[in-house]
Amino acid sequence: MIQQEQTPINLSVEAWCEALEVSPSGYYAWCERDISPRQQADARLGDEIERVFVASRRTYGSNRVWLKLRDEGIRTSRKRVERLMRERGLRSIRARKRRVGLTKTGQSAYFAPNLLKQDLRHRQKREVGSRRHPYLAVVPASCFQVR
Q1: What SS3 state is found at 28?
Q2: What is the pLDDT of residues 41-96, one digit of tens each?
Q3: Domain coordinates in residue numbering, the chain
Q4: Which of 61, 121, 137, 147 is the most exposed place for a label (fewest CB within 10 A)?
Q5: Could you give the angle at which helices 13-20 and 2-9 cross, rounded to 10 degrees?
Q6: Are the CB atoms for 34 and 49 separated by under 8 Å?
């Protein structure tokens, strides 16, 4: 933290240590220290998580990654897998539901033959029916008169 903050403000290490109430020798010892065994284990587990995640084509969430690791004999908690995936920015891609279309477009479209030999061009309005309802025959109004 001191190294990150030291550049913009240009304070010495001793001034930062005094502000944070730590000794300069403690700070330098901390800088030279190796990473902890827990952080090393997290790095190894993170690599395994990333391997499983990429093998799933980025579709597995933390629960499925955890189950896959458990099947492979790697014992860890689900919350730890969640944390490591979050730290590495691994988010699953949600697959969309695929709908099978009923129509085909373009050159692959199949046109059924006209077996009834129908003339589907617009006809006169009173010949067979109106344009709005071509399947209804127009009946003269005289048929509905009550005698």
Answers
A1: helix
A2: 999 999 999 999 999 999 999 999 999 999 999 999 999 999 999 999 999 988 67
A3: 2-32, 37-88
A4: 147
A5: 120
A6: no
